[in-house]
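Audit log entry. Action: structure prediction of a protein-small molecule complex. Ligand: 2-acetamido-2-deoxy-beta-D-glucopyranose. The ligand was supplied as SMILES and no pocket hint was given, so placement is left entirely to the predictor. Protonation state taken as written. Sequence taken verbatim from the request; no trimming, no tag removal. Recorded inputs:
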Amino acid sequence: MLHYLILLLFVAPVFSDADKKPNFVIVLTDDQDVVMDGMTPMKNVERFIGSEGITFTNSYVTSPICCPSRASLLTGLYVHNHMTKNNSLSGGCYGSDWRLKEHRVFANALQNAGYDTFYAGKYLNQYGVKGAGGPDIVPPGWSEWHGLVGNSVYYNYVMSNNGVPTHLTDRYLTDVIRDLSISYIENQTESQPFLMVLAPPAPHQPFTPAPRHKGFYKNTTTVKHPNFNIADNDKHWLIKMPPAPLPESLLPELDHVFRSRWESLLAVDEMVADVVGALEDIGQLDNTYLIYTSDNGYHIGQFAQVYDKRQPYESDIKVPLIIRGPGLGKNISDPQPVLNIDLAPTILKLAGVDAIEMDGKAIDLDVKQVIEERYMLVEYYGEGRDGSVDPKCPWKYDSDNLAQCYPAYECKCQDARNNTFACLRHIAQRLSMKYCVFDDHKIWFQNFAELYDLSEDPYELNNIIEEEFQAIIVWYNNYLSKLLKCKGTANCDNPMS
Ligand SMILES: *[C@@H]1O[C@H](CO)[C@@H](O)[C@H](O)[C@H]1NC(C)=O
Ligand SMILES: *[C@@H]1O[C@H](CO)[C@@H](O)[C@H](O)[C@H]1NC(C)=O
Ligand SMILES: *[C@@H]1O[C@H](CO)[C@@H](O)[C@H](O)[C@H]1NC(C)=O
Ligand SMILES: *[C@@H]1O[C@H](CO)[C@@H](O)[C@H](O)[C@H]1NC(C)=O
Ligand SMILES: *[C@@H]1O[C@H](CO)[C@@H](O)[C@H](O)[C@H]1NC(C)=O
């Protein structure tokens, strides 16, 4: 009996430690790129997550736009399976179809497994608007809900606090998210594991820094890679629309946007340091996976575009992804190809929770010597809006198909209904290719395509579709059409089998 007791005394704490499930904290920024050095302002992220964990250098999103990409991250599904195709209600962005599927958001599985779950900040762009049921709705899966109504802004917004809409006029949203997060962490009891998603607006338009950070990067100008502000004639017609290159007079505005984005990120970086500190204070830092990522990338001036996302190039589809947590290596750079749909299955696996059907696959967090070959799918449905072309712009002939053409930017259009494309991003050891097909066939009876060899042409200057062997193009085309119909982890990982 005495033996048994002593054994219990010594063994019990060890068992309870091992049984304690890990916590998860995801920081999801809005439009943060890696290609234009978008991580430069994130010194705390680098110090507390990057140098303590793994930085994924080939991390991509399933769609270069907020709502479809967020729906993918939340469900682990490709766009053709969750069907949130654009940022409008009619395109599935918090529309009625999405709400029927919302129980597939991975937070539900964690909650069912005993996790307490917390969300603060931007969710899907149309969450909380009238046509989507209003801000009284608390999406399923969240025990503690602080969802922003509508799209990213920095001031003057409505936040749904557990279904109670609260209008805040002059409190900087990132700081509000930080304060809620700290308070939530301080309230945690030791016994229950938790999931937190922190979704600040930065660095999304209107790029508003916190007052304390204004002017921090006042001398910074846009990154000018070889594809900056060049007319490139082998690309889809939208990219070739005039003016290309952009006139010199526009460049100061691009610089202004560039530095404002960086300044708006400084409050996010402070938030990360404070969250890490709070986790440490409650003794949970070593039992927590911290994941830092963004919903899509961004371009400023690439191929003479103004500033936006919605294009198939690396600037727009590549995102930061950094993970630290129990058992992971420190200060590691990992080139394995990964997608935003991999995060939900990765988290469920780390939590020891049964998988629900997803298209992504759990990331192998052991560092490997060789890159494992992978074909990843990117889907984008071009947006167009009747009457969205400013009347001062000269594009009268097809204005219903175009979008975001403003006189302030020389009427350079950012999107069009037929800027609809699907890309295959093919990465292996010493191989890095991208094959994209545009949906322009209704007029031309053939699809316009772009093919890049990124191992030789990292800035996507040369569309080699005319030069590549026909057999390779046929293979890519075949693979792409299979991936566009894939369903489930195994099938999406190997649709040709
Ligand atoms: C933490 O607990 C306090 C006291 O009960 C409460 O007022 C506060 O709202 C809680 N914080 C969060 C984020 O739930
Ligand atoms: C920014 O530029 C101004 C004028 O060119 C210069 O005086 C100042 O020292 C620069 N500031 C920084 C932080 O580099
Ligand atoms: C992390 O690795 C980089 C490059 O490998 C190195 O320069 C840096 O000093 C390391 N940082 C830490 C905190 O070990
Ligand atoms: C979004 O998608 C829906 C459904 O395909 C479409 O009706 C709507 O026009 C799209 N929205 C925009 C702004 O293009
Ligand atoms: C695509 O849009 C362009 C410009 O608006 C137009 O000329 C072309 O007819 C459109 N093609 C299709 C298939 O809609």
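Audit: result stored. The two ends are 59 Å apart (CA to CA). The chain is about 30% helix and 20% strand.
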